[in-house]
Amino acid sequence: MPSDPYAHLHQDADDSDADRSTPAATDGAIDPEAEMRARISAELQQEVMMQRFREEHPDLWMQVNRLGRLMSLQEDCEGGEFPPGSCFLYAAVPGFHCFAVRKVLGVDLDTCQVSLDIHSDGELEEGTVMLPLEAVSWYGFPKHAIPLAFPYSGFSTSRPLEGLVEPALESAE
User: Fold this and answer.
1) How many Å from the N-terminal Cα to the C-terminal Cα in the chain?
2) Which of 43, 62, 57 shows the shortest CA–CA distance to 109?
3) Thinking of the domain 61-140, which architecture would CATH place it in?
4) How far is residue 64's CA from residue 131's CA, in Å, rounded to a whole number?
5) What pLDDT is attached to residue 173?
6) Strand 127-132's sheet: what is its strand order?
7) What pLDDT, on the 0 to 100 scale, is given for residue 146?
8) What is the pLDDT of residue 27?
């Protein structure tokens, strides 16, 4: 009887993969090099995306940087969230200008908006808001509402106010 020319197509899949080093063959072990390559690739993609955004929207670049700094400060807070009354973001939107920030959820460069979890402040309920980047002005921290590890002293100056008044203004009084 002649041999089957298609015999190789009927082999067990287990036999064909037995000598390959795949994650399935190594009981789910993760290749550290592959993990590092994926992380580096993601970082490079993010850098390219940020550079493209900076070139296409130079007017919004400062807001993205402000929000990035705010996100890095939030990482230092317990639970990755700002406590009530510790961080306020000011935005030029109709009806409300001040938002009590709980957490910056993310910045969407495609839609040019930021998503925030906010604390209730008497006017706004606790929840999530999305603000256009062009509306974001600044953020601030009340003087004693945040841990001293933060690099901000609040709304007050750390320098004495004496000597900051112009002599011309003193003589005009």
Assistant:
1) 118
2) 57
3) Roll (2.30)
4) 12
5) 43
6) 127-132, 113-118, 98-108, 88-91, 136-140
7) 56
8) 54
Residue type, 35: E
* 3-class SS of residue 64: helix
Whether the CB-CB separation of 117 and 128 falls below 8 Å is answered with yes
Amino acid letter at 111?
T
Mean pLDDT of the chain: 76
In SS3 terms, 100-168 reads as EEEEEEEEECCCCEEEEEECCCCCCCCEEEEEEHHHEEEEECCCCCCCCCCCCCCCCCCCCCCCCCCHH
Q: How open is the CA angle 144-149-150, to the nearest 5 degrees?
A: 70
Model pLDDT for residues 92-126, shown as the tens digit of each residue: 888 888 999 999 999 999 999 999 999 998 888 99
3-class SS shares of the chain: helix, strand, coil, % to 5: 35, 20, 45
Q: Report helix, strand or coil for 89.
A: strand
Q: How many Cα atoms occupy the beta-carbon half-sphere of 83 within 13 Å? A: 9
Which of 6, 1, 113 lies closest to 67, judged by CA? Answer: 113
d(CA 89, CA 81): 14
